[in-house]
Amino acid sequence: MSQTISWIDWAIIAVYGFGLLAMAYWLARRQESREDYYVAGRNVGPWPVGLSIMATQCSTNSILGAPAFVAFAAGGGLLWLQYELAVPLAMVVLILFAMPLFRHLQLVSVYAYLEQRFDLPTRLTLSGLFLFVRAFATAVTVYSIALVIDLITGLGFTASVVLLGAFTVVYDVMGGIRGVIYSDVLQLLILAAMLVLVLIFLVDASGGFTQMWQSFDAGRKTTLDFSHHGFGDGQTFAFWPMLIGGLFLYVSYYGCDQSQVQRQLSTRDIDATNNALLINGLLRFPLVLLYCLVGVGIAVYATQNPQFIAALPDSGGGPEYNLAVPLYMINALPVGLVGLSLVALFAAAMSSLDSVLNSLSATTMEDFVRRFHRGSWSPHKELILSRGITAIWGGVTLLMAFYVGDIAPTVLEAINKIGSLANGPILAVFVLGFLTHRVAGPHAIAGLLLGMITNGTCWIFLPDISWLWWNVIGFAVAVVVALALSYLARIHRVGHNAREENVDLYESAIRHHLREEARHNWYRRSLWLVAWFTGLLVLLLYLNT
């Protein structure tokens, strides 16, 4: 599949890469402490943060996988849009309940709250879980992206890893979270512009948008599936698991995952944080709709040009449909735009990798290095150490990328399910901290572990249950187990009791936030998100007819 890329296209890629490095160097001049490096001095506006959050979700896997799902996947099509209905509802939960506490506590690591509410082992357990899962998932992401770059350009796998990793790690080390945020904004704009151009070319090749839509397989136009429930019927992408399971997944991801919460903690105040979440809740659907429409265009183009599918590399079980979008880009776009399309793929990859590397560094520094270091460092030494930890994590994930290919392909395919294995139980630990007074750390950890074990059991022995339901199942099991253990401990007067001085943290923060709500009228703005959810549901119902 590798094509001859013109020197003009390579020049465009080089200008983009060195432009990122220059921006990171310029932003690095403002850093004086680890807080500047990890939370940008808590002085970033809502628009950059909101767009950065969107950019991270718009990864290469999404840009390649979603159009392939719409165009070619068995049981696929526009059902993918159901997944986005949960996003505005998740933003409402975070705006009204989660972020007030985290902003009130002035956290850098979200897991530091767990030590204040529970104990140190709870903090270290969830922080360690985050480090393990994110590092492994990042290595798999680098591996898959490098394969795409290799197949498109013929550079070779090693050179592709180095090319992607070198630029990402260097600008991440220099720029810190501010560099991550502003590079994400740039990358999102490039990516969105490129997707619009690709869609324009696809529409033109189809004879117009109406012709393209009419030529699209009617069975794939279904946007809502109310006829299945995902509990044992083997239908993963039915409406209810995507809405309810998606809600639990998104609340956990946006509210309990360091890679997301860290940016929300970088804003100047709670008002800016909530505005960033509002921006994400309102604008994410149009972006997802854009690359789903690209999938519609790719499906029609493949029907009209049978040789297109034949040109895709063989994945072992058939054509590698995830490479359909880049194959179309380099074959259909003119010189110059091919370079921009490759930049867009790089941008999608970097916007996911940079934030994860910075959050891995922040978690390591806050939850382990500073937590156990006896003594103090100057702000400058902490800044240098923070950059060093980022570089180390960059090197670790790049090295891991060379070895994950030895893992069975089924595991690589299953990596997308790992989030749902842990998301529900992790969310349960935070909710137990927010809403209960007597659940102690050991009870929460036991619930977390049993919740994950239950989800793993569903994965292995009950494959017909939609993996989206794991987010709900794991949450419910973790909560029930923790509450039961807490109750038994009170009856027998054994075990640990939650520290009373810390249990009131959430209530104090909420009282403070309610005063802010009255001043900024965030309840009304939350209704905007509910109205947006309703409007999206109506739109999908209309498209479904």
Automatic annotation (TrEMBL):
<keyword id="KW-0812">Transmembrane</keyword>
<keyword id="KW-0813">Transport</keyword>
<dbReference type="GO" id="GO:0006814">
    <property type="term" value="P:sodium ion transport"/>
</dbReference>
<feature type="transmembrane region" description="Helical">
    <location>
        <begin position="89"/>
        <end position="114"/>
    </location>
</feature>
<feature type="transmembrane region" description="Helical">
    <location>
        <begin position="277"/>
        <end position="303"/>
    </location>
</feature>
<feature type="transmembrane region" description="Helical">
    <location>
        <begin position="237"/>
        <end position="256"/>
    </location>
</feature>
<dbReference type="InterPro" id="IPR001734">
    <property type="entry name" value="Na/solute_symporter"/>
</dbReference>
<feature type="transmembrane region" description="Helical">
    <location>
        <begin position="443"/>
        <end position="462"/>
    </location>
</feature>
<feature type="transmembrane region" description="Helical">
    <location>
        <begin position="323"/>
        <end position="349"/>
    </location>
</feature>
<keyword id="KW-0739">Sodium transport</keyword>
<keyword id="KW-1133">Transmembrane helix</keyword>
<keyword id="KW-1003">Cell membrane</keyword>
<dbReference type="InterPro" id="IPR038377">
    <property type="entry name" value="Na/Glc_symporter_sf"/>
</dbReference>
<dbReference type="InterPro" id="IPR051163">
    <property type="entry name" value="Sodium:Solute_Symporter_SSF"/>
</dbReference>
<feature type="transmembrane region" description="Helical">
    <location>
        <begin position="6"/>
        <end position="28"/>
    </location>
</feature>
<feature type="transmembrane region" description="Helical">
    <location>
        <begin position="526"/>
        <end position="543"/>
    </location>
</feature>
<feature type="transmembrane region" description="Helical">
    <location>
        <begin position="155"/>
        <end position="173"/>
    </location>
</feature>
<protein>
    <submittedName>
        <fullName>SSS family solute:Na+ symporter</fullName>
    </submittedName>
</protein>
<feature type="transmembrane region" description="Helical">
    <location>
        <begin position="384"/>
        <end position="405"/>
    </location>
</feature>
<feature type="transmembrane region" description="Helical">
    <location>
        <begin position="185"/>
        <end position="203"/>
    </location>
</feature>
<feature type="transmembrane region" description="Helical">
    <location>
        <begin position="126"/>
        <end position="149"/>
    </location>
</feature>
<keyword id="KW-0915">Sodium</keyword>
<dbReference type="GO" id="GO:0005886">
    <property type="term" value="C:plasma membrane"/>
</dbReference>
<feature type="transmembrane region" description="Helical">
    <location>
        <begin position="63"/>
        <end position="83"/>
    </location>
</feature>
<keyword id="KW-0406">Ion transport</keyword>
<dbReference type="Pfam" id="PF00474">
    <property type="entry name" value="SSF"/>
</dbReference>
<keyword id="KW-0472">Membrane</keyword>
<feature type="transmembrane region" description="Helical">
    <location>
        <begin position="417"/>
        <end position="436"/>
    </location>
</feature>
<comment type="similarity">
    <text>Belongs to the sodium:solute symporter (SSF) (TC 2.A.21) family.</text>
</comment>
<feature type="transmembrane region" description="Helical">
    <location>
        <begin position="468"/>
        <end position="489"/>
    </location>
</feature>
<dbReference type="GO" id="GO:0015293">
    <property type="term" value="F:symporter activity"/>
</dbReference>
